[in-house]
Design brief:
By secondary structure, this protein is α+β, with helices and mostly antiparallel strands. It has helices at about 20-30, 50-55, 65-80, 85-95, 110, 160-170; strands at about 40-45, 55-60, 95, 115, 120, 130-135, 140-145, 150-155. The protein is built from six helices and eight strands; from the N terminus they run H-E-H-E-H-H-E-H-E-E-E-E-E-H.
Length: about 170
């Protein structure tokens, strides 16, 4: 078993390298099978204090078909003997416990899952390897690598029972 030494300072555990916005756009283009000509990344903040501190989050817009293409690409890459496949398997193998006090099953994969790594949530569904992504307004991607199943919830409002239309579907 290989043991990685502890870092001496801050470390980016989600991504081994940084990307420019145009590099990210080309990556999204490759994942969605579309040529990217115009890029609209929006930096948003939870509060004005975040902007002063330099803390913001990124976002991008994708259709439900794009979400499905992204999920299918992640599933295929995980199963492949490629650099990206190695990276996805490494993320899964090195996932960490969230150590939250409470987990709920009706709000989404981020609130339900007990483990996290590399921008993915890992819900416990038997012995299956499941990657989850949680987006704005309840948008969800669940990728069951073990059974080759994908569930996409593409919504503009989070007023739905995720346990019923997300979790129970990927479990069955």
């Amino acid at each position: 078993m290989r043991v990685t030494p502890q870092p001496e300072g801050p470390e980016n555990i989600g991504n081994p390298e940084e990307y420019s916005i145009i590099d990210m756009a080309h990556l999204i283009g490759r994942l969605t099978g579309r040529e990217i000509s115009t890029v609209h990344f929006i930096k948003v903040s939870w509060s004005p204090k975040d902007v002063v501190k330099g803390s913001q989050r990124y976002t991008f817009f994708a259709t439900s078909e794009d979400y499905l293409r992204i999920a299918k690409t992640i599933m295929n890459d995980y199963k492949s003997d490629s650099c990206i496949g190695d990276y996805l398997r490494m993320i899964y193998d090195n996932r960490v416990d969230k150590k939250k006090k409470e987990y709920v099953s009706n709000k989404g994969v981020a609130q339900y899952s007990r483990q996290y790594g590399g921008q993915f949530h890992f819900p416990k569904i038997g012995k299956n390897i499941v990657f989850g992504m949680d987006g704005y307004a309840g948008q969800q991607i669940l990728i069951d690598i073990t059974n080759g199943r994908i569930v996409i919830i593409h919504t503009i409002d989070q007023h739905y029972d995720w346990n019923k239309i997300g979790l129970s579907v990927i479990k069955n």
